Amino acid sequence: MKIKYQRHREKLQPRGLQSTIMLAFSVISISIMLILGVVMYFKFSALTRQEVVQSTQKLMEQTRENLEDYLVDMRQVSDAVYYNVIKENDFSSREKVIPQEMNLIYEANKSNLRSIAVYNNYGSLMAAEPVALQKEDPDVTRQDWYKQAIGEMENMHFSTPHIQNLFDDATRRYYWVISLSRAVELVDQGVPCSGVLLVDMDYSAISRMMQQINKTYNGQYYYLCDGNGEIIYHTKQLQISKGISAENNGKVSKYKDGVYEEKFAGEQRKLIVNTVSYTGWKLVGVIPYSTFTHGLFSIRYFIMMLMLLMAMMLAVINRVVSTRISRPILKLDASVRKYEAGEKPEIYIGGSQEIRHLGYSIQRSYEQIDTLMHEIVLEQNERRKSELDALQSQINPHFLYNALDSITWMVEGERNDDAVFMISELAKLFRISLSKGQTVIRLQDELQHAKSYMNIQKIRYKNIFSIQFDIEEGLGDYCSVKLILQPILENAINYGVNCMDDCGEIKVTGKLKDGMILLSVSDNGIGMTEEEVRLSLTDSKRVHKHGSGVGLVNVNHRIQILFGKEYGLQVESEPDEGTTVSILFPAVSYTEENRLVLEKGHILAGEDSKKEKWDELI
Residue 617: phi, psi to the nearest 5? Predict the structure, then answer.
C-alpha cells in the first residue's frame, strides 16, 4: 500500500521547476521570434514590393524617354519635309528638286523609316521616297491615317502597327510600319490645295525597345497601346489578336499616369501607366503578385535561417538561465525530500538571497517541529502512563477488605494454618500488584498473581468451584501487562460460577501462536447473551452488580494502549454453557531493555510502526 501511494504521488507531482522555467522561456522566446519573423517578413515584403515598383517605374521612364526621342525624330522628319520641301516648292515646276530634297531627308533617317509620301486632297500621289511604284488603285482616301489627317488638320496622327501596303517592293518583302500622317498645304501649278504628308516609321525600332524591357522571366511584362486602347506592342499580341489570350487594354487606356491595383483574369496585379508625349500612347507595366512572391523566396529563406540561429542561441541561453535559477531550488527540494523520507540531512542554504532565506526558514521550522515532536512524545508518554495508572487504580479495594475479614475469621476460629496460607497468598498478590510501580512484568509473575488471587477466592467461597492452569512451558519468560488476568477471573467467579453448587469450573490456558501470546479464561457458568457479550467490551459505563467494577473494558483498554488496537480481548459465550475470554498480545521476550521500550512508549508513530517494532522485539 505504501509503495502504491508513493507511485501515485510521483504521478501526481507537477512539472519540475527547471522544466517549467525552460518551457516558459521557450514559449516567450518562440513567441518573440515568431512576431519578429512576421514583422520582418512583412517589412521586407513591403520594401521588396516598393523596390520592384520603383525599379519598374525607372525602367518605364527610360523606355518612355527613348520612345519620345524616337517619335520626336519622326516629327522632325515630318516637319523637315513639310516646311523645307512642300511649302517651298511647286509640285508642277519642281518635279526633280522635290524628289531630291525628299531623298536627302530619307537617306539621313532611313534606319528608322520605310517611306515618305505626299498625297493631294483627291488621294493622288504627288511624291514619294524611296522611289517606288504605287500599287494600283490603293484608294488612300479610305484608309484611317488619311481620314484622321483630313479630319483633324491641326494635329499629327500615329496609326497602330500595320503592314505597309501602298508601294510595290522589288524584293517582295512586307514591312510592319507605324504611319505618321498630317494635313499639309501644297502648291500645284500655282494653285494652293490641301494634301496629306505620310511618314511610315519602321515598327521594328519600337518593337526592339519593347523587347529589351520584356526580357524578365518572373511574370512581369510591358505593353504599349494608343489612347483608344488599340495595342501597339504586346508580348502576346498574336494570341490577343486571335482571341486566345486577353488584356485589359481598353480600360487601362483611360487611366492617368500612376500605379494601380487590379484583378484581371482571376489574378491580382499592379499596373504602372506612363503616357508617351505627342501621341497619347500608354506604356503599361504589369506586375503580377506572383512576381512579388517569387522575389520574396530568398527573404523567406534568410528569415528562416535567422530564426533557426536565434532559436539555437535562445535554447542554450534558456538552458543556462533555467539551470542557474533552478539549481539552488532543486538542491533545497532534495534536502527537504530526504528529511521527509526520515533522514536528518542539513537543509541546503544557498543561491539567491530569497532562496537562502527560504532555506533558513525551513531549517528553523524543522528544528521547531523536532522540538515539538519531542515534547509531544514526552507528553504522550506521561499521558499513557497516567492512563495505565488510572486504569490500574480502578481495582476495587473491596477485595482487600473481604480478604482481611476472612483472615480475621480464621484466626478467631483458630484456623491458624489457613490464616497463614491466606496471608502468604495475599502478600504474594500485593507484591506483584505493586511491582515497584512497573506496568510491564513477566508473564510468570502475572500467572503467579492470578494463582494467588484464585487461592484466596477459593477459601472465601469455600471451594464451590475448581481452578485449573494449563500454561505452555517457557511462556513465563515473555512480557505481560500487569493485572490483566485478575479482573477476568473475578468476573468468571461473580458472573459465571458463583451460583453453582460445587460444580463450577474455571480453566486458565496459555500458549504461543504465530509470534503472539494467547491466554484464555474459560468457565462453565451461566454464560451471556449476544447483547451482553457486545456490551462487555464496549460499555464502560455499565453498572456492575458484583466484583471490582473494572470489567473487561479496563483490561482491553490497557492492552491496546500498550500494544495497539489489533490486540486485546475477545469474548465468546453461550447462555447456560459458559464463557471464554481470550487475551491476545505480541510475544516480546522479557528483558530490561524491552521492558523500558514498552514502559516509555517509544512506539507512537501509528499501528504499522508498532507492528514493525513488535517484529523487531520478537
Answer: -65, -40
The 10 Å CB-count burial string (b at 16+, else e) for 270-287 is bbbbbebeebebbbbbbb
118 and 128 in contact (C-beta within 8 Å)? yes
Residue 344 burial class via C-beta count within 10 angstroms: exposed 0-12, middle 13-18, buried 19 and up: exposed
Report d(CA 501, CA 464) in Å as an integer.
6
Q: What is the pLDDT of residues 330-339, one digit of tens each?
A: 777 787 787 7
542 three-state secondary structure = coil
Average pLDDT, the chain: 80
Under a CB-based contact definition with an 8 Å cutoff, are residues 363 and 349 in contact?
yes
pLDDT in tens, 220-271: 899 999 888 889 999 888 898 888 989 988 899 889 999 999 988 888 899 9
Three-class secondary structure assignment of 130-199: CCCEECCCCCHHHCHHHHHHHHCCCCEEECCCEECCCEECCCCCCCEEEEEEEEEEEEECCEEEEEEEEE
C-alpha triplet 495, 497, 502: angle, nearest 5° = 160
Decide which of 538 and 547 is more confident. Answer: 538
| DSSP summary character for residue 437 | G
Sign of the torsion formed by the C-alpha atoms of 525, 528, 532 and 536: positive
Q: Which domains does the chain have, with CATH numbers?
A: 87-205 (3.30.450.20), 214-295 (3.30.450.20), 394-617 (3.30.565.10)
Kind and range of the H or E element at 23? helix 17-79
Q: How far is CA 108 from the centre of its chain?
A: 81
CA distance 52 to 50: 5
Q: Where are the alpha helices (DSSP H) in 257-394?
A: 289-295, 297-340, 353-393
- State how far the alpha carbon of 209 is from the alpha carbons of 126, 231, 234, 274, 486, in Å: 33, 15, 12, 15, 132
SS3 16: coil
Longest dimension (CA), the chain: 201
Q: Quote the CA–CA distance of 445 and 453 in Å, as a whole number.
A: 12
Please check whether residue 296 is in contact with residue 48, taking contact to mean a CB–CB distance below 8 angstroms. Answer: yes
Is 450 strand, coil or helix?
helix
CA distance readout (Å), 471 to 3, 175, 466, 510, 591: 41, 142, 16, 5, 21
Could you give the 3-state DSSP secondary structure of residue 484? coil
Query: Helix 97-109 vs helix 17-79: angle between axes, to the nearest 10 degrees?
Result: 160
Q: How many CB atoms lie within 10 A of CB 345?
A: 12
- C-alpha cell recorded at residue 197: 504628308
The x, y and z cell numbers of residue 251, run together, are 480600360
Half-sphere exposure of 311 toward its Cβ, with a 13 Å CA cutoff?
Answer: 12
What is the C-alpha separation between 88 and 108, in angstroms, rounded?
20
**Model pLDDT for residues 150-200, shown as the tens digit of each residue:** 888 778 888 888 887 777 666 667 788 888 999 999 888 888 888 999 999
In the numeric block, the cell 491615317 is attached to 145
